[in-house]
Write a structure and sequence with these properties.
With 203 residues, the protein is an alpha+beta fold. 36% of the residues lie in helices and 27% in strands. The protein folds into two domains: 44 residues; 114 residues, Cyclophilin, CATH 2.40.100. The strands form two sheets. An eight-stranded antiparallel beta barrel has the order 1-2-9-6-7-4-3-10. A hairpin with a 4-residue loop joins strand 6 and strand 7. The longest helix is centred in the first third of the chain and has 44 residues. The relative contact order is 0.14.
Length: 203
């Protein structure tokens, strides 16, 4: 009887050992699985372990460079402001400079230069000389009241005019620009008809 009990006890013990081994194996498997899931979750949550962003392509780099360049100041071959129209008036050994308004008539005058004119006194207020070709009257009023020192154009006679006196308003007068400095007084001192060469400076 005691021998049977011992055998039965051994079998029970062996069975329990096998059961414990099986349970421990399953628990170990579950623990490893849970650990793997935890590590995977950490890898996803960790920003340092995330995949780096794709490198920019040549097209995107070109686009970015173009965008960056467009924000800076642009250069152009021409200036937004027109260069001032300037002429030189020479009478004998005297030279005068005049600044012209930016008008169609002024541009037509400059296009004819250089030109030499015989200019005579008219009304003791101006010297006038006939131009080779008429000037455009586009954008001009019917007449004007020039000031002393103005450079003008008298359309009915196709005359370039240098005003050294006070000329009142008259139809057909176009003010082209203005003589610089004390040119008007010096021109007034020149008596009679004079030979006048009108040119663009350094021409």
């Amino acid at each position: 009887m005691s021998d049977r009990l011992r055998i039965l006890g051994r079998q029970t013990t062996n069975g329990l050992k096998e059961l414990m081994t099986l349970l421990l194996g399953r628990c170990a498997g579950l623990a490893i699985g849970a650990l793997s899931l935890g590590l995977s979750s950490c890898a996803v949550d960790d920003p340092q372990s995330a995949s780096p962003p794709p490198a920019p392509t040549a097209t995107s780099a070109t686009t970015q460079a173009s965008s960056a360049g467009s924000t800076g100041p642009t250069s152009s071959g021409t200036s937004d402001e027109e260069s001032p129209l300037q002429i030189q008036v020479q009478i004998g050994n005297q030279r005068f400079t005049a600044q012209l308004d930016d008008s169609a008539a002024s541009r037509d005058l400059v296009a004819q230069l250089p030109v030499t004119l015989e200019m005579r006194d008219h009304g003791s207020v101006e010297k006038t000389g006939r131009l080779p070709s008429p000037l455009s009257l586009t954008g001009q009023p019917a007449g004007a009241d020039p000031d002393i020192g103005d450079v003008g154009y008298y359309a009915p006679g196709n005359n370039l005019v240098l005003y050294y006196g006070d000329q009142s308003y008259y139809n057909g007068i176009v003010v082209l620009g203005r003589l610089e400095g004390g040119a008007a007084g010096r021109i007034a001192a020149l008596q009679g008809t004079v030979r006048v060469t009108v040119s663009v400076p350094d021409q």
